[in-house]
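A quick aside before the break. I want you to see a complete sequence-to-structure record at least once, exactly as it would be stored in a machine-readable document. Don't worry about memorizing anything.
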Amino acid sequence: MGKNFKHYQALDGLVTSALLALYCTMSQKGGFWTTQRRNEQLVKFIKPTLKKVQFATCKNEIRAMIGIGRRATGNLEQKLWEVNAMNLAYRARFTPADELYIMLNALYEQHQFSSMLENAEEAMEIDTLYMKAKSVENGFDADNNQIKPLTVAVKTQRLDTLIQAVQANGVYRVDIDSVDEQQVNHLLLHRISSPPANEGITRSQAPSLDTVNSHDETFA
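That is the input. The structure line, written in tokens, reads:
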């Protein structure tokens, strides 16, 4: 799910940030905001993201958003809410195996802990999580639900940081099984709950959408 997830992650972050920025600005400045004024504010926020590396996977969508926002009959706010709904539907299809990938990806991007399958012929690298292929295979059922704790080996001076990061959203619990003579930490990764259904913006956070047009826009 690597490429698709990167695209989802970038687009979801952009849409959520753009809507929150719009509503914060509306709250601060007050008054009635027409569709045109909302479009202008959203385009002002979204346009600079074209040059940001983290949004490289969704440049086509960004250009389409800007086009909608500049169109006389366009309603970019409405389109962003439609994209937000699609992102939530995509997120709802994630399996526990997908969510493990997401967690490991976040560990690398936010805390520089990489992860890989263990290879007995290669030396362990610092701050790298190693998992046995057999442990991963036996840890999930046919529907990709985690049914057993996963064994993880890591050599690090930042064990507390690692454990706090893994346990941050309440989905996983980490137990320290043992520490061997090479100072390798052997951990057990338990799945204890499901992630929150929606960590992004919800429609209830939006001001009144009385000015939303009834016609449909698409990213074409």
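Two observations worth writing down. The helical segments are 2-29, 35-46, 59-70, 76-92, 96-111, 133-139, 159-167. The chain has two domains: 2-93, 96-191. We'll return to this after the break.
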